[in-house]
Design brief:
Elements: E1 5-11, E2 18-28, E3 32-45, E4 49-54, E5 59-62, E6 66-69, E7 80-83, E8 87-90, H1 102-111, H2 118-124
């Protein structure tokens, strides 16, 4: 079950409604799971798509907090695409045919801090 993806119920500060957030299971515990949440970063890919990464730290959640199980470890089945050296973007935002103009390319290097990109690949090698 390690590295399997799940949806976890979370309560946001903006409203009292429960929302879910994607996480991957790191370890099963007696009462639930240790997970890493997939969180949005301030980085933009191609100046228009939010980049997501799995948190470095783990959090313990109760089994009752799980709102859905993905029977996979493949993040693409959860609606995200891996961008090598960057992180993940939502597949609904990603367009294979998009060709950034020269000015878009210049601002990509400004908005993308490559030093932050290595953390997700480290997580996958654990």
């Amino acid at each position: 079950m390690e590295k399997h993806l799940i949806d976890v119920l979370i309560e946001t500060e903006d409203d009292d409604d429960n929302n879910s957030q994607l996480a991957r299971i790191i370890k099963k515990t007696q009462t639930g799971f240790k997970v890493q949440f997939l969180s949005e970063t301030p980085i933009l890919y191609e100046d228009r798509m939010s980049v997501f990464r799995f948190d470095k730290h783990t959090e313990e959640i109760g089994e009752e907090s799980v709102s859905g199980y993905y029977d996979t470890t493949d993040i693409e089945e959860a609606g995200y695409i891996k961008i090598e050296g960057v992180g993940y973007v939502k597949s609904e935002d990603y367009d294979d045919d998009y060709n950034p103009s020269e000015s878009d390319s210049e601002s990509d290097s400004e908005s993308l801090d490559i030093s932050d990109c290595e953390e997700d690949e480290e997580d996958e090698n654990e």
